[in-house]
Design a protein that fits this description.
Elements lengths: L1 H8 L1 E8 L6 E6 L7 E6 L4 E5 L5 E5 L6 E6 L6 E6 L4 E5 L9 E3 L7 E6 L5 E6 L8 E5 L16 E5 L7 E6 L6 E6 L3 E6 L5 H4 E6 L4 E7 L5 E6 L4 E5 L10 E5 L16 E8 L4 E7 L5 E5 L6 E6 L7 E7 L4 E6 L4 E6 L4 E4 L9 H4 L5 H14 L1
Parallel strand pairs: 1-29
Antiparallel strand pairs: 1-28, 2-3, 3-4, 4-5, 6-7, 7-8, 8-9, 10-11, 11-12, 12-13, 14-15, 15-16, 16-17, 18-19, 19-20, 20-21, 22-23, 23-24, 24-25, 26-27, 27-28
Length: 392
């Protein structure tokens, strides 16, 4: 335990990838252990890039989405397959062995469905996407991930569509998270303040719903944790934190292990430092510990231990980003932290390293018209939209 904290406390920037153009990094994904050593990154200009895990240098890029690419996921069962989710109403599938090629599959539902979250099951067989609110409804849409579409613009085949859940959420579904080892277990979170857990093997929506948890706000991120992965972490858009033990559902004791409507107040920082937002959580299985990453709008990062009954600051990382950080990944094999954000930089943090600067193009003013459209987090725009609907 101490050795891991020692590693975190000595993290420093080992590589810095400067932006090619003024765009934000919205999400990061690491290729599976059995695949090519790659990082996938989605950008606010609708481009998806592949980078080398070791050097961060660009391996290739994909274009084709016409809306914001909010998520990237490598297939757990096929390391050469990358899925991307976009607000343009498509989930697309790409072959990482052919950088620059067109999508090999495209998954769609109804024309008026705009997605804002997605995930793929641990066995790589099912893709699920959450939609924005459509009239009075919101939908969880399921596809067979192995069913090929044509990958093109408007003519993608829909044979892969497995079904839709439409009764469990009443607003934008902002988080979808499959269980890491149980393929039929799915959690979803929404701006309606509800987090639902489903057993997809039970079939119809009413039968599949295991439990509903209330986070009293708009859910922003979900993460399975615990030694048996039976705990569920939920972060909210107003920086709340909830940790539930789903193994206690049938017992008399409360299954809420920890809750705070504003987790920022729980972490004392030295003068001049601030914890302005929470980015997400990650369960480190080998260490049996849950960690969160938070940050300040000036670019500082704060690594937090969430394995007890509250939050504990492990270390703060400075001198890297210059604005809000949107996403991160912890690479346990390489012992490094990867972060990306609104300054367009992709950073690799390792223990006691000296920074290597890598420029992939002319560094321009990051506050361009296109990037300013993404100045606030996408989910915050959805919350504002939701509040307007409720007040009408």
């Amino acid at each position: 335990m101490d050795s891991l904290e020692d590693t975190f406390r000595t993290l420093s920037i080992s590589r810095r990838l400067q932006p090619q153009e003024p765009s934000y990094i919205l999400d990061l994904a690491l290729s599976p252990k059995s695949g090519t050593e790659l990082i996938a990154a989605s950008f606010s200009n609708h481009v998806v890039r592949l980078h080398s895990k070791e050097t961060l240098r660009v391996w290739g890029e994909y274009t084709g989405h016409t809306g914001s690419v909010f998520g990237v996921r490598f297939s757990p069962s096929s390391p050469d397959v990358l899925f991307t989710g976009s607000s343009d109403g498509t989930i697309r599938c790409w072959d990482v062995r052919q950088p620059g090629s067109s999508a090999v599959r495209a998954f769609r539902s109804k024309p008026d469905h705009s997605y804002c979250s997605f995930d793929i099951s641990c066995n790589g067989s099912v893709v699920c996407a959450g939609t924005e609110q459509v009239d009075e409804d919101s939908f969880l849409v399921f596809w067979d991930a192995r069913m090929a579409g044509d990958g093109s613009g408007g003519g993608a085949k829909k044979e892969g569509l497995l079904g839709v859940y439409s009764e469990s959420h009443s607003d934008d579904i902002t988080a979808v998270c499959f269980h890491p080892t149980v393929a039929d277990r799915l959690a979803s979170g929404s701006t309606d303040g509800l987090v639902n857990v489903f057993d997809l093997s039970s079939g119809e929506e009413d039968d599949a719903l295991i439990t509903t948890c209330n986070c009293d706000s708009s859910a922003s991120a979900l993460c399975w944790s615990g030694k048996s992965a039976d705990q569920l972490l939920c972060l909210t858009h107003d920086e709340g934190l909830y940790l539930w033990d789903l193994a206690r559902l049938d017992g008399e004791d409360s299954f809420t292990l920890f809750s705070s409507s504003d987790a920022r107040t729980l972490v004392p920082l030295s003068e001049g430092n601030s914890l302005d937002y929470l980015i997400g959580g990650t369960w480190l299985e080998e260490e049996g510990r849950l960690f969160l990453l938070g940050g300040s709008h000036s670019g500082a990062l704060h690594l937090l231990d969430c394995s007890g009954t509250g939050l504990k600051l492990v270390t703060s990382l400075k001198g890297g980003h210059s604005s809000t950080v949107r996403c991160f990944q912890w690479d346990g094999l390489m012992g490094c932290l990867l972060t990306g954000g609104e300054d367009g930089q992709l950073l690799q943090w390792k223990a006691e390293w000296k920074v290597e600067e890598i420029s992939v193009g002319k560094k321009e003013n990051l506050k361009s018209v296109s990037s300013m459209q993404h100045k606030t987090k996408a989910h915050r725009q959805q919350v504002i939209k939701s509040e307007k609907k409720k007040s009408d």
